[in-house]
Amino acid sequence: MGFLNKGYVPLQAMDTDWIWTGSLILFLLLIGRSVFQIVYNLYFHPLSKIPGPWFSAVSNAPYCWWLLGGRQPYKMVGLHNKYGNTVRIAPNEVSFSTAQSWKDIYAHRPGHQVFVKGSFYDGGAFSVDGVRSIISETRPEVHKDMRTQLSSAFSERAVVEQEELVARSVDKCIRLIGIRGSTENGVDLSLILESMTFDVTGDLAFGDTFGALDSDTRHPWITKTMEGLSLAPFIDLLNHYPTVARVIRIVLHRQILKAQTNIKANEELCFETVRRRILKDTTRKDFLTRILEDRDKKAISDRQIAAHASDFIIAGSDTTATSLTATVYFLQKNPSSLARLVAEVRSAFSTYSEITNSSTMPLDYLRAVTLEGMRVFPPVPFALPRDVPKGGDTVDGHFVPEGTVVYTNPVAAGFSPSNFKDPWSFRPERWIDPDSTDSLDSIQPWSLGPRGCIGRPLAWLELRTTLAKLIWVYDLEIVDPDLDWHAEARMVSLWKKPSLMVRTRNRGVSLE
């Protein structure tokens, strides 16, 4: 047994030592890599000179935390107020809040490459056959063709033809607001205006309304649509953490599969509804009329039309309802603004039937109120990210390297003291005051440039006529005067709005 005294080490002990040594080396390598990445991001990264919280430069985690918390829009306001108009909010992301940044990122600039949509928009593609819509399509040349195909359906001329269909749902909504709002508990404007705008878009996209206004509860289609949208922040988080995403897809396979099944079922329902509308022999002037007129020439498939229609339902309904509801809330909280709007609207029309798209266009204060409503509560609360093209480019005076994700944050822009005097005050006069020094172009509720909202004329029709008719017919009273809209609002892709319960009193006029 003398060999025990000659330095012999049992194999088991040798293996254990190597395991511990290897683990220690691996651990130190990981720590070293992390330290290197932190130091690089803070001091040597091309974005290191752009102001922002140090922890956002180091990791995507803060961004994801704010996103999942539902209060990210207001967090962005705080960050911009602290660090300025340009803020690095993630290792490779920069947020801006100026009028110039809107132009630099989204508008066409001669001599500059296009800032394209990136992976953020992948969740918007139709999962059936991989068909993309005008919103989710990222290739500029393909999007340009899509916009050309759809432009006639959303033109000013088309809106004139569609006004009668829109007015049916608007007038039905106005009547129901009077009926349901005459009770002590009042009517939920958040819900009923959402139902109205979904019925409008359904009528235009599918040839019939959803019947959402026929119930005082949320329509199942709306519920499913909003449930699908609520997954968007989660998808965005996974885009920021691809490694974590792979693990989550394994751990939560059953839940993800269920969500995907529900989304696909909703898309197939949309597809079948569009096909039924296409087969109808009708001359009604809806969303599909002009598209189908040129269909042979432009070769748009049924599924492509369904993809566009689905996005139209989402983008054209919730955003309009949000703007209307928020504007009514802020009017009720600002009696002087409400009184001025009431005076303008009620003096402009002798009868309800006189209130139309064209007759409301000259009402300057109505337009100012609507724009101010969209400033203090943008219908789209999240920024629209773009990827900086090859070679990098300049945004608002800052050179940004290629591959960086950039955007103008609409909420931060609206509440920036450098853009607006008393930014938290609801003051429609700023939009019509010739001496105003406010940066009005820092507000772009429909974005701008080649990817600006194609449905802007239709949105203005709904906003102007609905608000004018509501103000012309009723005196309104908020049931809960202590409701704090900003404190209650949450972002779940789009806004999750608080209920706005109001009592109504017809001032003695006819809705004929």
The CATH architecture classification is Orthogonal Bundle
Unreliable spans are: 1-6
Average pLDDT: 89
CATH topology: Cytochrome p450
- C-alpha-based Rg, rounded: 27 Å
Shape: globular
Give a written overview of the molecule:
Mean pLDDT is 89; it is low at 1-6. 55% of the residues lie in helices and 8% in strands. The chain starts with 10 loop residues before the first helix and ends in a 6-residue tail after the last strand. With 512 residues, it is of the alpha+beta class. A hairpin with a 2-residue loop joins strand 1 (86-90) and strand 2. The chain contains 21 helices and eleven strands. The chain has a single domain (45-506), classed as Cytochrome p450 (Orthogonal Bundle), CATH 1.10.630.
How is the secondary structure organized here?
Blueprint: H1 11-44, H2 54-58, H3 61-69, H4 72-83, E1 86-90, E2 93-96, H5 99-106, H6 140-151, H7 156-180, E3 187-188, H8 189-206, H9 220-229, H10 232-240, H11 242-251, H12 253-279, H13 287-293, H14 295-298, H15 302-333, H16 335-348, H17 357-360, H18 364-376, E4 386-387, E5 393-395, E6 398-400, E7 405-408, H19 410-414, H20 456-473, E8 474-478, H21 485-488, E9 490-492, E10 494-496, E11 501-506
Parallel strand pairs: 2-7
Antiparallel strand pairs: 1-2, 3-11, 4-7, 5-6, 8-11, 9-10
Helix pairs in contact: 7-8, 7-20, 8-15, 9-12, 10-11, 12-15, 15-18, 15-20
